[in-house]
TrEMBL record:
Keywords: Membrane, Transmembrane, Transmembrane helix. One of its GO terms (molecular function) is phosphotransferase activity, for other substituted phosphate groups. The keyword Transmembrane applies. The lineage of its organism: Bacteria, Bacillati, Actinomycetota, Actinomycetes, Micrococcales. It comes from Leifsonia poae. GO terms for biological process: phospholipid biosynthetic process. InterPro entries: CDP-OH_P_trans, CDP-OH_PTrfase_TM_dom. It holds the Pfam family CDP-OH_P_transf. The chain crosses the membrane at residues 54-81, 87-106, 153-174, 226-245. This is CDP-alcohol phosphatidyltransferase. GO terms for cellular component: membrane.
Length: 267
């Protein structure tokens, strides 16, 4: 496409009505994975769609939207360290995290609208996600230690959660990459047989990142928050163990044929 064509396309994006952009996004929405939890699937994707339409009309690039998501998210994480637990702090942290999460959903949608999907953009998105899932529980542990609001032994919960979150994120990304190498014999998460259901979406709610964000509202009542957070951490750990076993079985069942041989270590 020529520079004049790009300029015309950009000009057209600014003239397109907001509601028309939203409708285009709705029609082009990627299918949700069968295991997609309720908040992420039914709430966050919708909010992200509205933000993506705004960003598209504003001429923002997908990487700029990723950067906006990172700013909201890491400001929230910083508040966990610098402010003592309170209702005000908890609400602020939850709102900031949820806005960051919505922009995280929006960047990919902007990319599809602009037709600018790239390995660099996907890399940036995953790097931000990998950083936040590890730093959030560690920031919580540091903040609780600084303000001495929980027994020291309990600090092992968010520290362990940081490890579980990092391993789960890596496992999900690596499993999808390896599934692609099987040339379709092991379906991707969005290609699993069967349709997404309300029952499944509700069953995995404890592992929903949106629910984790909402849990910080309870920081004004630390004993209640500690119970809820520990249950979320335990549920996520159980999910990781079950998912890891399932992923291993899927990949172990794949036998490459001579026509689809791939280079070892080529991801």
């Amino acid at each position: 496409m020529t520079s004049d064509g790009i300029a015309a396309e950009s000009s057209g994006a600014t003239r397109e009505r907001y509601i028309d952009v939203v409708r285009r996004l709705t029609a082009a929405q990627k299918p949700a994975a069968r295991s997609a939890p309720a908040y992420s699937r039914f709430v966050n994707r919708r909010i992200g769609r509205y933000l993506a339409a705004w960003a598209y009309r504003a001429g923002l690039s997908p990487n700029a939207v990723t950067a906006i998501s990172a700013v909201w998210t890491f400001v929230a994480i910083a508040l966990l360290i610098v402010l003592p637990p309170s209702w005000g702090q908890g609400i602020a942290v939850a709102v900031l995290l949820l806005i960051g999460y919505a922009f995280d959903s929006a960047d990919g949608q902007v990319s599809r609208l602009q037709g600018t999907s790239s390995p660099a953009g996907e890399w940036l998105d995953h790097m931000v996600d990998a950083t936040k899932v590890s730093t959030m529980p560690l920031a919580l542990a540091i903040g609780f230690y600084r303000f001495d609001v929980v027994p020291t032994l309990w600090l092992l919960v968010p520290i362990a959660f940081a490890i579980v979150s990092a391993v789960l994120f890596f496992g999900m990304i690596l499993t999808e990459q390896l599934r692609r190498r099987t040339a379709g014999s092991v379906p991707l998460a969005t290609e699993q047989p069967g349709r997404p259901s309300w029952m499944r979406a509700l069953a995995v709610l404890p592992m929903d990142y949106g629910v984790l964000c909402l849990s910080f509202v309870l920081l004004g009542a630390v004993p209640v928050f500690v119970v809820v957070y520990t249950l979320i951490a335990a549920a996520t750990t159980l999910f990781l163990l079950l998912a890891a076993a399932k992923w291993f079985r899927e990949l172990r069942s794949w036998s490459p044929d001579t026509s689809a041989t791939t280079q070892k270590g080529d991801l």
